[in-house]
Every structure is written in C-alpha cells, then in structure tokens.
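Entry:
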Amino acid sequence: MRQDQILRLPLLQEDFLAQANGQSTRIYRCDKCNKVYKYYNGLYTHKRFECGKQKSFHCVPCNKAFWHKQALQKHQRCSNCDDVDSYIKFMEEGKYQCLKCYKLYKHKFTLTRHLVYECMREPPFACHLCSYTCTRKHRLEEHLRSRIHSSPMVLTDLTVRKIRK
C-alpha cells in the first residue's frame, strides 16, 4: 500500500499511534456481521472488501472458497486437499487442462484463448495508479472503476494503456 493510500484511511490519531506501537486496546466490531478486529484498519478492510460479499475464488479439488486470490494460491501451495475425488470427477467429465500451468477450463475455446494470450506470458495491461496487471483490457477498466480507484478524478482519467516493451 502506498503512503498516500495509507493516509486516506479514516483512522483516528490515537488508534494510529496505538497500532504503530502494537498496543491497541480497543475492539472494533462490524455492525453487519459482528466480526471483531483489534485495529480499525482490519474492520475498514473487512467492510470494503469482504462483508456481505461472496467468496469468488474456489479451490477445484476441495471446493473451498476464498475472498482473495492470494489466499487461494497460498492454500493450493500449502495444503493437501482431502477431496481429491471431486477433482478426479471434474477431470473425467471431459474438461480441458493446460499442460504448461495445469489450469482447468470448461470449454476448449477458453483453453485455446488461454494458450494464445495468457499462459506463461506477462500480463500486457497495467494500472497506472498501483501494481495491478491483467491480461484483458476490460478487466483493467473494471479495476479502475472498482473500490480501489473509485474517486471521480480517477474515473475521469480512464486511460487504459498496453505495456510497451
């Protein structure tokens, strides 16, 4: 997170000092789901990105869901998924798998598109405000309109550029 983004968080001064010293004594509770956080930043992040939203990243072998892509990737690296039977069933139903990166696809044309434009390639689109990169222009446009860059100034400057090498 960049310094200017950190300063924009609505954090009380005493909370900031307590958090910096690791001495927070307050408890922050979500008014929708009653989840409790030690620091205001945790509650703030929860309200913006998690509370009331569906987990959109799923592990195919065990069908576990995650809010963040990084959490799914960590799960895939660190765990031995117990429900391998569902993964085998998925493979036997005629699904398509990339032999380079082992990603699975429901349709052959999706696998073909992945092989041509995505697999083992650097994403060609990058956000000019943060480190986000993606393989499709519309995803970058969605990112710029998203919760992260939703200020009116950013939305009026919706210029999507392809990375030049």
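The chain has eight helices and eight strands.
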